[in-house]
Write a structure and sequence with these properties.
Blueprint (H helix, E strand, L loop, with lengths): L1 H37 L22 E5 L8 E5 L4 E5 L5 E5 L2 E4 L2 E8 L5 E13 L7 E10 L2 H5 L5 E7 L3
């Protein structure tokens, strides 16, 4: 008789463990579903976004990469029908071009080297806009420039490198 009481007690304990295990699984799955339902996907900044309102609608202007005091910094100058990339440590125009096309959220351009036959393919998109409390310089407009080795790589977004450029304010 004592073994029978022990059997029922053990059986009840096993049922309780099953119930607690099922509740833990249900709670975990519910939390995961809630997280996926609440978290919204993030998309890259677009030329027409509200955050880009104080920045130029077109990509035209003078853009400076990274740290302007660095030896590896570059200046990307984009005008209506002329594009040039200048390396600042020696002031040489490294690449130049004359056309660019806006395709979706990217601006695409092909630049020819001024010294060799090499050409680079670039895609530009707005990056981050940082606001500042300084009333003279309210925003820092930045673009992300993707470098491609060939037109085929550019077509399939297989970039070789990228840089962040900041708009130079006059």
């Amino acid at each position: 008789m004592t073994t029978q009481k022990y059997f029922y007690k053990g059986r009840d304990f096993l049922e309780l463990r099953k119930i607690i295990g099922r509740l833990a699984i249900i709670l975990t799955l519910t939390m995961a579903l809630l997280l996926f339902a609440i978290i919204l996907p993030a998309f890259a900044l677009d030329w027409n976004d509200n955050e880009w309102t104080n920045c130029p609608r077109a990509v035209e202007g003078t853009w400076i990469s990274g740290n302007p005091n660095s030896l590896n910094s570059k200046t990307l100058s984009i005008q209506e029908n002329k594009v040039s990339m200048i390396k600042t440590h020696n002031g040489e125009v490294a690449f130049a071009g004359n056309t660019f096309a806006k395709k979706g959220k990217f601006v695409e351009m092909v630049l020819q080297s001024t010294t060799t036959d090499k050409e680079i393919h670039l895609k530009l998109r707005p990056h981050l806009v940082q606001t500042n409390s300084d009333p003279v310089n309210k925003t820092y407009c930045r673009i992300k420039v993707f470098h491609f080795n060939s037109q085929a790589h550019a077509k399939f977004d297989k970039y070789s490198s990228w840089d962040i450029y900041q708009l130079k304010r006059n």
